[in-house]
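With this grant's support, we have settled on a layout for protein records. One resulting record is reproduced below.
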Amino acid sequence: MRNRFDKQLVQLNDYMLEMGSLIEQSIEMCVKALVSQDEAIAKQTIEADDDIDHQEKKIEDLCLQLLLQQQPVASDMRIISSALKMVTDMERIGDQAADICEVAMEMSELTYMKKLEHIQSMAKETTVMVVKAVEAYVHKDQTLAEEVIARDDTVDRLFNEVKKELITLINQNAENGGQAVDFLMIAKYFERIGDHATNIAEWVIYSITGEHNDYNH
């Protein structure tokens, strides 16, 4: 019985890695759509959100199967319950990548009033956070999870940089207001992705230690 349970836990890890990979691709594609102003890529990314939703359902079904059909001990319960919490944040990251693409589509015909260095840096940081958070879960690596949480400060700093830059541009020319709002919304989505990655890392730490702290507050 335990041997079968352990095999299913390995399968759970594989599913989590697959979902992490889907999210990583989604973030990369939404940035590409934004930078290249490519509506086709934006649409493809929005459609790919269905794959993320499907993967979430697979993980939830397997977790419920493990809880109902097996007799997990306390440490196993933490691993399974953490996965259920994590996939909620992972699914929301997919939603936010799709939301960014929707804004990118609205801006696809515009001449950008600013370069996108800070937003691209936010995307890079949040991608690393998501990938490392899932790796930390699979490898039960508390140090790596704590590294993810620490990286959120960089994302917050970049968000503040974008906000300051946009305020300056609006002050220089009020006609920049509409596009500034769009860019601020995009930066906020990336900031929220960082928060979700932090949540994921918090649940990783819980799965290892049994203690859950909310680092977003």
Observations:
- The radius of gyration is 19 Å.
- The chain has one domain: 2-209.
- The mean pLDDT is 93.
- The helical segments are 2-36, 39-69, 74-106, 117-139, 142-172, 177-209.
